[in-house]
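Dear support,

I submitted the protein below through the web form. The confirmation email said the job was done, but the results page showed an empty box. After a refresh the structure appeared. I'm attaching both so you can tell me whether what I see now is the final result or a partial one.
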Amino acid sequence: MEEAAGWLAALDAGSTTPDAFDQWRAGDPRRAVAFAQIVDALEQVERLRAVHEREPAPPPRVERRQLLRAAALAGGASVAGAFIAVQANARESASTITGERRTIMLDDGTRIHLNTATGISWRIDGTSRSVWLDEGEIRLEVKPRPPGSGAGHPLRLIVAGADIRLEAGIFNVRRQPESVGLLVLSGQAALDGRRMVDAGSLAQVIGKSVSVRPAETIAIARAQSWRNGQLVFEGESLDFVVAEFNRYLDHKIVIADPSLSRIRLGGRFTTTDPADLLTALQASFGIRSVRGDTGAITLTTA
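What the results page shows now:
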């Protein structure tokens, strides 16, 4: 069983070949059975882990192990076929933790900036290019497809059930618990193949409902500023400001007095250090900040 587990790890990591696996499997009929048992056991562990997550686990991106398990029991030719199927459908992925930002470049030249606590995956092949936004916020700088490699195909973005086609341009997309926001900074986007969103427009998707309106200046400024590690506000309420800051902080800010939530303020602040915000609240509104034993920051009246 230990040897079968080693082969599964090697196959998942791509550090072995179908031919090498075939040779090992053919050496003893019991090996194929042991391999299938290892796959089953690991999948059961992953299903149990998913039960304890806050949200249901998404369906597997590629049924790699199911294919390999069936192939191992069926014979060598099936193993090679399983590898071909896996490679054809495999996605690459990237993510950031709280407070982190990251930039990646896709094979087609498209650049994606990941904001705090963001997860994406993507697949680029000869006829299509697709990106999945699993959580968080991204800025996409979409390049045209080069001649001879599927030119004319827009980039497909799938997020929370919305199917968005992006032409060459710059887009900011944020996934929230109840909605998806699409800001078109340049270029053009199509929502679910029907609703066009032009440059300078903000689309909001809530379930099956889609609204499109001209983007406010502050929305554009906010989308531009997070790439530089800054938050911009222009008269928003304190509860909104705190919610935005908390996206970047391990130790959250808590408003102890609900009446403080209605205070409005503006300014430009560093995402990962609330010191300037706390100083401004003290100086302008007399709001005191107290850091507790857990590191959380509580806002109270002085």
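Response: this is the final, complete result; the empty box was a page-load delay. The domain at 229-301 is CATH 3.55.50.30 (Phage tail protein beta-alpha-beta fold).
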